[in-house]
Structure formats: structure tokens, C-alpha cells
Amino acid sequence: MIDRFLLDTGIFFVFSAFAAAGLTGITISILRRRAILDLPNARSSHTMPTPRGGGWGLMLALLPVWVWATFAAGRITQLSELFVILGAVLLMAVSWIDDRRGLSAGVRILVQIAATGLVMATLPRDLSITDGFLPMPLDRLLAGVIWIWFINLFNFMDGIDGLSGGSAAAMGFGLMLVSLRYGPSELDAFRGAAIAAACVGFLYWNWQPAKVFLGDIGSIPLGYLLGYALIHLAMNGGLIMALIIPLYYLSDATITLVRRALRRERVWQAHREHFYQRAVQLGRSHARTAKTAIVTQFALAIFAAMACIWGWPMLISAALLVALLMRWMARPPKAA
User: Fold this and answer.
1) What residue ranges of the chain have pLDDT lower than 50?
2) DSSP character for 101?
3) Contact (CB, 8 A) for 62 and 20
4) pTM higher than 0.70 for the full model?
């Protein structure tokens, strides 16, 4: 069974990666013709006008595979699974409007609450993120808040060439490894592989120097699908693994947000205070910073798979690894 799964996954991995690369290439041409560009400003990490909206290519490769896998697994009739798909489509539409015209933070959050809330309300009752510790309404509320935070932190972390695509690929790889080892089903493993594949295809265009950026059309729905996969894993008893896989993103975004909140700054406004942005400001290239973060996150994926056996010690090890990464990012590079 596993051998057949690996064969099918390998075929679809190659298909999704090439589809994402091809569709992103087409998207770049359209964005350039319509002059949909991200212009540099004081908070930018890039210096040249670059097409924004490359997430169209990634999502148009990923979402059909996600739908096909859900259908093939016989889960398309479950309301929660159907609402996940509809939520991703809704977020793509609203995020594109935000990319083109701009929307208030309140409107964006309301749409995210709708997209996540419908899923939370229709999930099977045997799923619990607190393993039954909290009453079901509070359990669902907590899971929904975490999911919305993950969507936004993923968007916040989309700031230098290659980081979001490579990080999502590492997280997808981690979800695949953990789902194969721990469960709950091969569908979850396939979804992780599909995310990784589509992101690898997008990286062809997004690595330094980036020829296109994700834009909200990519980072918001991608964070939404990744967040769902992680929440689903946590609700099936895999809380430790679900924490390890995105631990660097959780740590960088949360620490930065708390620091800004303590200074009474507007936390939803664009800035350049994340650890990865500080690494670039201190003189490290986009490529070196992104590569170091991505390699670390692939290590986290392996730690998560090992946590299926050893549990909490692997979470502690993962936290130490992330602390070392952020310390490296925050310190000036040694002179040659």
C-alpha cells in the first residue's frame, strides 16, 4: 500500500511542480503586460519593480490536486472538507482584490473568520485540539483563533525572495513524513506532498533575484491550507508534531508581533523587524538567509517525524534549533 502511495505521490509531485512552474511563468507574463508590479518602498526588501500575484500560478496548480485527492479519498461529501475548498477559493478572490485595490484589516479578518468558522462548525465531533480538555465550543474557538493567526503570520513572513515558497515546501514535506508515520490517513500525506511540490515549482521563479512575488493571492490561501493541515494533525493527537513543523514561522512572527505590541505599534502594518529581515539588513543576501531558514525547516520536518516516537524531547530539540537560527539572523555576519 505504501509503495503504491509513494509511486502515485511521486507522479503527482512531478506533475504539480511542473504545473506550478508553468502556470507561474504564464502568470508573470500577464502581470507584466498589465503592469501589476510591487514597487519598492522604505519597508521593502527588494529594489526593482517586480510582478506581484504569482500566487495565481501556485494555487491553480495546488488547489485542483487538493480537490482531486479529497474526491479520490471519498471525503468530498464531508461538509468540513468541502468548506475547506470553498474557503480557499473565497480567500483567493478576496486576496486578489486586496492585492489590486487594498482592503481594510477588518474586512480581511472577517473573511478569514468566515472561511475558518464554517470548517470549525462542521468538523467531526471526535476531533479535538485539546484532547477533550476544553468543552467543544471552546476547543473549536481556540483552534479557529490559532488557524487565523497562522494564516496571517504566514502572510507576514512573506518578505524576502524564496522564503515563503521554500518554507511551505519544508512544511509540506514535514506533513507528508508525519502522516506516513503517524497518520491519520494517506490523504493527509498526499496533501503535504502536493503543497511541497507546488511550492518547489513556484520557487523556480521566486528564488533570488525573484521574478515574481506571491502576493496575498498566494500567501493567504496557501497559509490557509497549510494551517488546516496542521490543525487537522493536531486534532488527531499529533499536537507535538503540528507544533514542530512550523516552529520557526511561529516563533519569528509571534516574537516580532509581541515586541511591536509592547511598543504600542500598529502590528498589522508592514515593517522590517522580523528576524529574517534583520538578517538581510545586517548584510546577508536573500538567498543565504532563505537557504539557511529552509534547511533548518527541513530539519524541523525530520524532527517532527522523530517526535512520532520520542515526543516532547524532539519539541525541545526543535526549539533549541530555532533559537540558534534566530540568533544567527540577529547577529552581524563575521567580516571576511
Assistant:
1) 1, 336
2) T
3) yes
4) yes
